[in-house]
Amino acid sequence: MSRRFAALALTLSLLRPACEAAAQTAAASDTAAPGLEQLTFGEAVARAIARSPSVGEAAQAILQAEALLDRARTVFLPLVYGNVGTAVLDAARGFDGNVVQPRTQTAFSGTVSYALLDAARWANKNQAADRVGTARAAALETRQHVAVVAAQAYLAVIAAERQREITLRNRDTAQALEDYARARLDAGQGSRLNHVRAVQQRASAEGLVQLAELFVRRAQEALGVAVFAPAPVGARGEPTLPPAPPPTDDLWLAERPDVRLFSAELEARDRIVADAWKSWLPTATASFTPRYVTPAGLFEPSKTWRAFFQLEIPIFDGTLGSEKRFKLAERESARLRLEALQVEARSELRAAQEAVKRTEQIVAAMQLAAESAREALRITEIAYRAGATTNIEVVQAQQTARNAEIEAAVAEDRLRQARLDLLVALGLFP
To answer: Which of left, alpha, beta for 38 (phi over 0: left; psi -120 to 50: alpha)?
Structure first.
């Protein structure tokens, strides 16, 4: 019995440095690598949106649509232009000593015209305004897509770092057991077989650490690409993904950028179809042109003006009917796309809500399993050091604990992803 207590005391004394080494390793894993930029979740998403070329192109598309709207608005403004011309002849023209047309004559004129009636062009102004709204909705969708890519890259870094922490703890535990097995072998109390098993377990754990480091590096590279950084970027802190309450009506659909885009496209097609009949309306234009000529000719006074009124009535245009049918088909296609998107959006919401609910339960179960596996590993290690078991049971307990912790980490990563998907489905992200 005294030997048993002595072995237990020795076990506790050896476990203490192992636990301290594990704590130091975990703390080191939380420290950023030298020169590696660290971003929070919000900073990563904001930088991705600010630096994305796609978001920039979408902003330029808005400016282009606004420019087209400004051009369409000119139908309500008069058109004013001037003209200056000089005619030089080989000789003056005239008869009986009177000059009909001087050899050199300069004319100054200006014209002011205004569309008194042009319903088709007036309709183009409203249609151009619809295109501005569509461009803005498209920019919001692009912005969300870029933000989601950056968010997923950030979550991948968090998940990879969690896997690395697990492998580091497993490596430290295996190293402590190897040291213990070596000490017993040197003291003549252990076996060569136990020491070889401990070395094999520590070597395998070291390989898993290197693989985890590789996954972390790849995830950081992907995050750097997502935020358009010139180097890999690390994650600083857990992301803030607040739980989203379930909606009570369909108002959340209007918050989704893709639904807003398809709705804007349908509204634009509706207006185009509704304005199709205006192509059959007549157009009326009035213009006024004053003219000054110097020197004046015999039959051309120096100062004249001209007023002109024009009314154009479409009688037959074979393209108008086919054009209207084409616009009707485009509107129907836009309506079908919107209806399909709404069905898909509702399905995404239900799936995301169910995923969050189920994954929360999975995380609770996996965390309990991981904690139990860690406790079982501690008990097995104490029993092994006390001589009650062999290191085979320790190896099995290590593998079980590592697998349980990995499953818990994977479940937590899935929960973060599920919460992100729920916010995206509701149109609340970013």
So the answer is: beta
